Structures are given as structure tokens and as C-alpha cells.
């Protein structure tokens, strides 16, 4: 059975280390099951995005998730069929900012984003001068609540998983958007075998 090296960054509840150091998560379970059904033996590594992405680019990893589409990536790698949509929210502790109606307005505020992470054109197109880079969603939520940033860019599922009951944050609903996510492969056959596996609708 061919071994495939699979990697992703910590993004609970989709993939994360539990209190015992064991990998858990919805996306992790789905992807590992599909790879095993396709006839492969997946070995998983979870680490910071900038580390795993470089390893994937350098050929030291075979499979990476969750990846966004881009022309540059399609020139070098093989993207699966759509894996799922992620919902991205722009959140704030200041209810007055919930009246913002365009992404362009965000350039007037301090925007917390995850370092080295792509959030789609809506956010990536903002000037660097308004962005404050943080290491993960938990740091973004803390920065929003403490006033270090005015707004933060968060995956909705991760935010809801991490949100402390004492943290009052509000989504700017007009700026909520969906991002298509994919599983990315270095080898076309691996991608095609993965895509050929049919999932039970309840597993999605």
C-alpha cells in the first residue's frame, strides 16, 4: 500500500490536537477515510500553515488541505473537486462597526488577520498598512476583545468552536462571505483516486 504524507494547519474543529495530543476533526476524519478507501496509507502531520505549505511546495508532503484555488496553484499542483465551503466572518467588539457595508471601508481600521494565510480577494486586496498579523484565530479573537484590533477575520466554524462565553464579538453581516476549499495534491493520480471515492451524504 502506497504511503501518502498528508498535512494541514491546526483549525479546530476541522483538524486539531486534543488534550492527549491525538489528531481529531471533521475534515481530518473525512480526508483520511477517503484516502484509505482509495487504497493509500496516509500519514498525517499538523503544523503551522507557513511550515507545511513550504514542505508541500518543496515536495516533502504529498497532500495538503484545506487549500484555496488560485491560477498559480493550478499551474503547479492538482486540486480536488470542491471539498466544502468555508464561511468567513469579519467580527468586531464594537457594535457601531456592524454598519460597515463594504470591504473597502476596512482600510480605515486595524484588521486582524492570520499571518501568511490567504483569506480571498476581499481581504487580501486590502492595504498592508491596515493589517495586523496574528498567529491564529484564538489570537484574533483575543485581539478583537482587548481592542488591539478593530475587526478580525475569522472562519465561522473555528470562531464558534473557540469563542469564550465571556467574549462578546459580533459579525459584520454584510461582509460575511463563502470560500471554496479543496484538497491539494502533487500527483494527478492521487488526486483522481481521491475524487473517485464516493462519500455518504451524511459524512459531509
Verbal overview:
With 204 residues, the chain is α/β, with parallel strands linked by helices. 28% of the residues lie in helices and 28% in strands. It has 7 helices and 12 strands. It has helices spanning 26-37, 49-57, 71-76, 121-124, 137-146, 156-162, 188-196; strands at residues 2-8, 16-17, 23-24, 40-46, 63-67, 78-79, 84-92, 111-114, 131-134, 151-155, 170-171, 177-185. Strands 1, 4, 5, 6, 7, 8, 9, 10, 11 and 12 form a 10-stranded mixed β-sheet that branches. The chain has a two-stranded antiparallel ribbon with strand order 2-3. α4 links the parallel β8 and β9 (131-134). The relative contact order is 0.21. The mean pLDDT is 93.
Short summary:
Helices cover 28% and strands 28% of the residues. It has helices at residues 26-37, 49-57, 71-76, 121-124, 137-146, 156-162, 188-196; strands at residues 2-8, 16-17, 23-24, 40-46, 63-67, 78-79, 84-92, 111-114, 131-134, 151-155, 170-171, 177-185.
Amino acid at each position: 500500500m502506497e504511503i501518502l504524507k498528508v498535512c494541514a494547519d491546526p483549525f479546530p474543529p476541522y483538524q486539531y490536537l486534543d488534550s492527549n495530543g491525538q489528531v481529531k476533526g471533521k475534515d481530518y476524519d473525512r480526508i483520511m477515510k477517503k484516502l484509505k478507501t482509495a487504497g493509500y496509507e496516509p500519514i498525517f502531520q499538523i503544523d503551522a500553515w507557513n511550515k507545511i505549505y513550504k514542505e508541500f511546495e518543496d515536495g516533502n508532503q504529498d497532500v495538503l488541505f484545506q487549500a484555496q484555488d488560485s491560477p498559480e496553484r493550478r499551474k503547479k499542483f492538482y486540486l480536488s473537486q470542491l471539498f466544502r465551503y468555508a464561511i468567513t466572518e469579519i467580527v468586531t467588539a464594537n457594535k457601531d462597526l456592524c454598519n460597515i457595508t463594504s470591504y473597502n471601508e476596512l482600510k480605515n481600521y486595524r484588521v486582524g488577520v492570520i499571518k501568511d494565510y490567504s483569506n480571498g480577494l476581499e481581504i487580501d486586496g486590502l492595504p498592508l498598512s491596515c493589517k495586523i498579523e496574528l498567529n491564529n484565530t484564538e489570537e484574533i479573537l483575543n485581539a478583537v476583545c482587548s481592542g488591539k484590533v478593530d475587526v478580525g477575520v475569522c472562519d465561522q466554524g473555528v470562531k464558534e468552536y473557540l469563542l469564550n462565553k465571556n467574549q462578546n464579538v459580533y459579525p459584520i453581516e454584510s461582509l460575511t462571505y463563502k470560500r471554496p476549499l479543496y484538497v491539494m495534491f502533487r500527483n494527478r493520480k492521487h488526486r483522481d483516486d481521491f475524487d473517485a471515492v464516493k462519500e455518504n451524504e451524511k459524512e459531509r
